[in-house]
Write a structure and sequence with these properties.
- By secondary structure, the chain is an alpha/beta fold.
- It contains 19 helices and 11 strands.
- The strands form 2 sheets. Strands 1-6-5-2-3-4 form a 6-stranded mixed sheet, sandwiched between helices. Strands 7-11-10-8-9 form a 5-stranded mixed sheet.
- Strand 5, helix 11 and strand 6 form a beta-alpha-beta unit.
- It is elongated and about 85 Å long.
- The model has no long low-confidence stretch (mean pLDDT about 90).
């Protein structure tokens, strides 16, 4: 457990955007039972969602009780928060599959930590529409709802408009909070900053129905400082937790290649690093940025969290062979199997045939020019026109053309 108080850690890690608490030190003086919702609009969570999970782990680490909500019902409607146009509606079958994937990833990330997994479809599927309108809808004023920023942006001049389906979403999320308050005593909702209005819908509903004060905390959306885009599912180049969508190697490489400007923030958000170790890494970054110690630590820790330390260490070894001076022969057969998921592979053993078959060169004449220019290596050794490629003990050989084009030779 951190030596910091909860409020201190939330501030230090950059997890506080908006809260209904008048003083954030109130976080330190109360037992919290919180919930955090994860939508099921895609078949995997992305690294933006992972940041939200890290916020949850901070609360759990300080002894508070967690309810993680998979949005099996709300994902059928589509959340308008943070969107400038309506999401395409997805089928029940797709949402069920996405919920199962989300639940599996949550179980993996949270591991042995104590938490309760819930799905809001379990309480919404049997609700009568007339009961919902009478018992829940009556507590919401239209004038209040239309003043929400995300609704104003959509229905105001130049906006794309909003269907009643999307407009009703905030009532559903408000109902979630009220239900979890009644059933489990939930008294805090955690969310991203684009959910602030929806969080208030729940806080207000609990107050109106039960006369009780509950709270909400939103965290800032995580922005890739190199691109200016948020780490979201719908963004171009999204980085996914599912290795079938973003391979373990590519996941590791993403973190390894983050810019110096952003790495400090990412270390605080995406790892459990403590201030003393953090200060040491940042000092090393400032003194020897070319060593990229902060990025290496970040890449290892985040990849280990999502995919396990063994896979993270394998990604590190592969990276060191491809982009540093580590010998290819030191890789294991398992490492090579992982590389085959990333690199073109050929069975050709003559250097010119291998270059063409792996598409490192477009023709034998180009391959000949590259070899003669000394731009091709086999397992780190310069190739010549007569080279017959031989596998190392790991069952393969590595061709490198130029600085960053690679292929494997393997049966």
């Amino acid at each position: 457990m951190s030596k910091m108080t909860l409020s201190e850690e939330l501030q230090w890690r950059g997890f506080i955007n908006q809260t209904t608490l008048e003083n954030i030190e109130e976080f330190d003086n109360k037992e919290w039972t919180f919930y955090h919702g994860f939508d099921a609009s895609a078949d995997s969570q992305a690294i933006g969602n992972l940041a939200a999970m890290m916020l949850d782990l901070v609360f759990i680490g300080h002894g508070h009780k967690a309810f993680l909500l998979a949005g099996g019902a709300t994902s059928l409607v589509g959340d308008p928060g943070g969107k400038d146009k309506e999401r395409p509606l997805q089928t029940e079958e797709v949402i069920r599959s996405n919920v199962a994937a989300a639940e599996s990833q949550l179980q993996s990330i949270f591991g042995s930590h104590d938490f309760t997994l819930v799905n809001n479809l379990d309480w919404f599927k049997n609700i009568n529409i007339l009961d919902f309108l009478r018992d829940t809808g009556k507590h919401y004023g239209i004038s209040t709802l239309v003043q929400r920023d995300y609704i104003q942006q959509r229905i105001g001049e130049g906006g794309a408009g909003m269907s009643y389906t999307e407009f009703s979403y905030t009532l559903l999320q408000g109902y979630d909070y009220n239900y979890l308050y009644e059933e489990y005593g939930v008294n805090l909702q955690l969310s991203g900053s684009d959910q602030w209005g929806n969080c208030l819908s729940g806080v207000e509903l609990v107050r109106k129905v039960h006369g009780q004060v509950v709270h909400a905390l939103t965290m800032p959306l995580i922005i890739n400082k190199a691109t200016g885009k948020k780490f979201g599912k719908s963004e171009d180049g999204a980085v996914w937790l599912d290795e079938s969508k973003t391979s373990v190697f590519d996941f590791y490489q993403f973190w390894l290649n983050v810019d110096d400007e952003g790495v400090g923030d990412y270390l605080k958000i995406y790892t459990a690093i403590e201030p003393e170790a953090y200060d040491s890494l940042i000092a090393e970054l400032n003194g020897a940025p070319q060593e990229r110690a902060s990025q290496k630590y970040l890449a290892m820790e985040v990849t280990a969290l999502v995919h396990g330390r063994e896979r993270a260490e394998r990604a590190e070894r592969i990276s060191n062979v491809l982009f540093s001076d580590s010998p290819f022969a030191d890789l294991s057969a398992g490492d090579v199997s992982e590389m085959k998921l990333q690199l073109p592979t050929t069975k050709e053993i003559h250097i010119l045939d291998a270059l063409v078959d792996s598409e490192l060169c477009s023709s034998k004449s180009e391959a000949r020019r590259m070899v003669e220019a000394g731009a091709v290596t086999i397992n780190g050794e310069k190739a010549d026109l007569g080279t017959q490629i031989q596998a190392t003990d790991n069952g393969a050989a590595l061709i490198k053309r130029g600085k960053n084009k690679f292929a494997l030779v393997s049966d």
